[in-house]
UniProtKB/TrEMBL annotation:
It comes from Pedobacter chinensis. The keyword Ribosomal protein does not apply. Belongs to the peptidase M48 family. Keywords: Hydrolase, Metal-binding, Metalloprotease, Protease, Signal, Zinc. Its cofactor is Zn(2+). This is M48 family peptidase.
Length: 270
């Protein structure tokens, strides 16, 4: 029995070591147990359901055009970075979509694979196209860093009792689906990514600043944007901040990052 347990432990350790991936730009090692294709399939289904069930603006609406314009510019920046860093396969896996939901909540999110939603209630806080780029860059940063897969992998490891991955995905499809849905609060027409850890938030901040800079948006807007979000929090906790920690430490870290990122990546024209 001990021998069997030892073999099982060794196999699990080997599986975990082989499942490590590297986050783009930051170089952090992360757990990546679940195949990206499975994550994307579940994300795309969930995204379509939310968009269909919500009051989604027509793409010809001026606000929707704004969201799509910002998203497309950041998308091109992401693809430029990926193509320059031997990540062409990752570019092909993305299926970008930008939708605007007409609800007065200050929130935005990006599911794995590049599926983005912005709520109209966030736009007054963003105040400008550049302010919107801060939020969308941050959310897209989560997707590019595979934070959804990382959190799903951790959930699989705990929730499925350390089963071999292939067995877990084959024998426990409903449980796997439930774990993915557990990463999101889906109520009515709202899907909100649950809290990321501080490392993931810092990575999304950094990637977001880089991608918005490459897209031609001034990263210095990040500080006043987060200050506005903090001011909003004093009177009403917006949905965005309920799942995305925003504090003086974050603003301080952004202030330290911005000069270097602006010097290296920012171009005034996209």
């Amino acid at each position: 029995m001990k021998s069997l347990k030892s073999i099982t432990c060794l196999l699990l350790i080997l599986q975990l070591s082989l499942a490590c991936k590297t986050v783009p730009i930051t170089g952090r090692k992360q757990l990546n147990l679940v195949p990206d294709i499975l994550i994307r399939e579940m994300a795309f289904t969930q995204y379509d359901d939310v968009v269909k069930q919500s009051k989604t603006l027509n793409q010809e609406d001026e606000l929707a055009k704004l969201v799509t314009r910002v998203g497309t510019r950041i998308q091109l920046a992401v693809e430029t970075y990926m193509n320059a860093n031997n990540m062409q396969k990752d570019v092909k896996k993305m299926q970008w979509a930008f939708n605007t939901i007409d609800e007065q909540i200050a929130n935005a999110w990006c599911m794995p694979g590049g599926k983005v939603v912005v709520y109209t209630g966030l736009l007054p806080v963003a105040q400008s196209e550049t302010g919107l780029a801060v939020v969308m860059g941050h959310e897209i940063g989560h997707a590019i860093a595979r934070h959804g897969n990382e959190r799903m992998s951790e959930a699989v490891l705990v929730g499925l009792g350390g089963m071999a991955l292939q067995e877990a995905l084959k024998e426990k499809k409903q449980e796997t689906q439930a774990l993915f849905l557990g990463l999101y609060i889906v109520g009515g027409h709202l899907a909100i990514s649950l809290p990321n850890n501080r490392k993931q938030e810092s990575e999304a901040d950094k990637l977001g600043l880089i991608f918005m800079s490459m897209a031609g948006y001034d990263p210095e807007e990040a500080v006043p944007f987060w200050q506005r979000m903090n001011a909003l929090q004093k009177t009403k906790t917006p949905e965005f901040l309920s799942t995305h920690p925003s504090d003086e430490t974050r603003i301080k870290n952004l202030s330290l990052l911005i000069p270097k990122i602006k010097e290296q990546y920012y171009k005034s024209e996209p």
